[in-house]
Fold each of these.
Amino acid sequence: MKHSKLIQEVIAVILVLLATIGTAKAIFKYEDNLTKKRNVIEVKPTNNFGWNPEVIRVKKGELVKIRVNNTTAVSHGFGIAGLGVEAKPIYPGHQELFEFTPTKTGEFSFNCTVVCDKNNHLGMTGKIIVE
């Protein structure tokens, strides 16, 4: 009888351990997925016709997600010609998500691609550094 009870207790402990390990594994997988979703670089045009941030650093061969959130009162655009990121307009109060994987290292300009101001538009550039 004691032997039977001991076996039941060992089985119960094993089941608890397996459930705990499974739960921990699921939590880590969930956190990993959240991190991937969160790995978005937030970029905003500024009211003085610049970008925040002005410089972005990324790694060659890794997926890059840039969300441009236009909180200004005029339309802007965003594009990175040297990396094949096609320009898109971003209207006031809207945002666009750009995803790409850089295949080469170097420094590349990102620009406003919509004429947003006749005097300041051409200066609305930033830099992306691919390491």
Amino acid sequence: MTLISVLQAANATAALPSTANMPSTNDLLIDLLVFIMATFLGVGLIRGVTRLLHTPLMALTNAISSVSMIAALIVMSESSNTTILILTTVGVALASTNVISGFLLVERINRLFRKKPAPKKEGQAK
């Protein structure tokens, strides 16, 4: 008996989880490489932003976080793997924190730029 036939027999009896739906190691390495490259690109882009564009950029990243939060909720609803459920729960918690605090901060910054009404003079007619 070879090792492959033993594993196939064990898989047939449901002793081992099925490996048909599991991604290969090569796919995981490519995904990790894309994630690392996107991280460095994002950091480089954020550091190059002037102060004038900071508020619109922050509003845009809040929108992206909300999209990623919805995607994580969809993955949570369709997954039965415990590891994926834990990771998506953490992702939803972090994205919701980012969205809420980001919107609060953008609103505070926008209040700084609003024109204040001119004070009324005492002798003016209403």
Amino acid sequence: MYAPAVASALPSPLFLLVGALACASAEPTADDSQAEADSCSLAASSTTWENWGAGFFAGYCRTCHSSGTADRRGAPEAVNFDSEADALAQLDAVERTVLDDGTMPIGGGVPDVELERLREYLACGR
């Protein structure tokens, strides 16, 4: 007796996996946004300009990036971190140069724990 090949009519597991991956999106979802909001609610209450940011920028940035600094060591005149408003105006540049590229501060030296706090502050503390 002859039995038809039913299995050949079904998609292969590999085909299903490739299809699922192709449909996956790298865009944040509502769940991602809620998870960030939940983590930010805790981080925002513990990482603020007053209790952390002012000290971080004073210690790691204002040696060169302050309106009162005579020897700016080549730092652009318009890039200062004298206030929270100054820091937030440079938010993208801070994220790129300090966290992504690691080119600031010149000479490095920021401990990983402080870099994580900076990441929290930039994402949540404002």
Amino acid sequence: MKCIRCGTDNPAGKNVCVKCGNFLYSPNPQNRHPLTAAQKSARRAARVKGATLGCLWTFLIVLGVFVFLGVIIFLLIQFVFPPDFIDFLAPATSSVFSTTT
């Protein structure tokens, strides 16, 4: 392959010129072509659809974790902790919204 900077013939398979060190390949290959408007629109729609599905799955997973934790806490309060433990955590006389004076 011939170097476009110095004109040196380089062996096949080399990426850099042996004389000047210039890259032998073009950063913009000739076989690339710009996308049409329809292809750009399809690519954009696919990205939006993928992002929307990703957000939906993330929301559903977080919601599921909160529901699972809520069920675990409910079961702990109902069946594991004794009733006087709940009274110890929130005594009825120290309520902020108490109407008695």
